[in-house]
Each structure stands twice: as C-alpha cells, then as structure tokens.
Amino acid sequence: METTIWIVIGLGILSLISGMLGLGVAFAASPFLSFFMTDFVHQVQPLTLLLNGLTALFATFGFARSGFVDWKKAITLAVVTTLSAPIGSLLAQIIPQTIILVIYFAAVIFLAYSLFRPVKKEQRTGENFRLALILAIPISILAGFLGVGPGFLLMPTLIIVGFEPKKAAGINAFAVTPPSFSALIPHLANASWDLNLTLILLVVGTAFAFTGARITSRFVPPARLKQIFGIVIVIMTAYKLFTLLA
C-alpha cells in the first residue's frame, strides 16, 4: 500500500509538470515507474504509453479552453508524427545506437541553447509551420528509434520556428497523442496490467495534466515557459546520459 501511494504521488507531480509543458508524461514516468516495476517491456512500457496518450490529450483540453490549440495545425502535425515514428522502430534494427544517440544529444544541446537564448524583437518572425512539419519527420523518426514520444523534441522546435510558447504547447500536446496510442497496440497482447493501479494512475494523471495545462494557460508567462522547458530538457538529458554510462 505504501508503495502504491508513492507511485500515485510521484505520477501526479510528473503529470502536472508534463501538462504545464504540453507533453505526455512518458518522458518522465518511464524512468520513475522503472524503480517500482521489474518488467520494463511488459509492465512499464504499456502503462507509460497509455498514460502518455491520455495525459497529452487532457493537456490539450486544458490549453484549448484558453484558445491555445490551433486544431488544423495540430491535426496535420499529428498525422506526420504518427506516420513517421514507426520508421524509427525499423531503423533501430539496422543502425548502431551510438550514432543515433550522438544525433539526439546534439539536437538536445541545440534546442536547450535556443530556448535560453534571448530573442530580440526585431529578430522575431511569424510562424513557419511548413518548416515545423519538415522537422517533425526526423524528430518523430528519432523518437521512434529511442522509444520515446516526439513531443520532448517537437515542443521546443515549434517555439524556435516562431510559435508562441503556449500555442506551441497546445499544438504539441495533441500532436503526440495519436502516436502514443498507435505505439501501444503492439504491446497489448503481452502487456501485464495491475488494473486497480492502472485505473488510479489514469485518473490522477489526466486530472493533474489538465490542471498543469490550465496553470500554464492562465498564469505562466511565455518567456518563463521557455526557461522551464529548457531546464527540463537539461535534467532529463543528464539523467539519460547517466543511465547510459552507469
């Protein structure tokens, strides 16, 4: 019972943060749940994919209430991410992981630098959605190769190509929802579910993700949102590097 309480509390906090950033919770829930569940493939991955899709969806609703979701662009981007992600899974069978990880860390360093770098008013340009669509393809392929959602890299990319941070978060939240559910399908046959815990986590995760999106929509300044995301990128990348070297 005590372990369940800690899992629920931790997942709630992570869902709140992910909702604030317009992400599904998998990027943080996957390593967190691995501390409590021994079978990563049959327990952790199916659960985090399900949580990722639903928390991202409820974060979308939270941003939509304040008008931060451009549905046409979000749906178009979701189609691109859903179709591109499986390519990464196929490439994982033939390309050395070291090469992909080098590309991943290089991309993260560039994105973190771009988020922290101040942008002068005269440097600001309009939204370049066509460029966002083009970049979403390699981002989704890379995410599929690494077994993570594309939102972690897609969200800062949308900001860099000109989207206001809150609008980027709203679009990103919806764009990563379908890939989460499509990636879950191959796991269903062999997934091991604790139904009671799963239902509790789904309720807590969706509620806190929605709340996080509402907090960002109403109270978090755009510049602060960029900084928060940059910090999260650095922390999660440091953790990933630590796990690879440990």
Automatic annotation (TrEMBL):
GO cellular component: a single term = plasma membrane
Q: Which residues cross the membrane?
A: 44-63, 75-92, 98-116, 128-148, 197-216, 228-245
**Pfam families, sorted:** TauE (PF01925)
Q: How does it sit in the membrane?
A: Multi-pass membrane protein
Q: Which InterPro entries match?
A: TM_pro_TauE-like, TSUP/Inactive_protease-like
Q: What is the lineage of its organism?
A: Bacteria, Bacillati, Chloroflexota, Anaerolineae, Anaerolineales
What does the UniProt keyword field contain?
Answer: Cell membrane, Membrane, Transmembrane, Transmembrane helix
Q: What is this protein called?
A: Probable membrane transporter protein
What the record says about family reads: Belongs to the 4-toluene sulfonate uptake permease (TSUP) (TC 2.A.102) family.
Instruction: Give the species this sequence originates from.
Output: Bellilinea caldifistulae
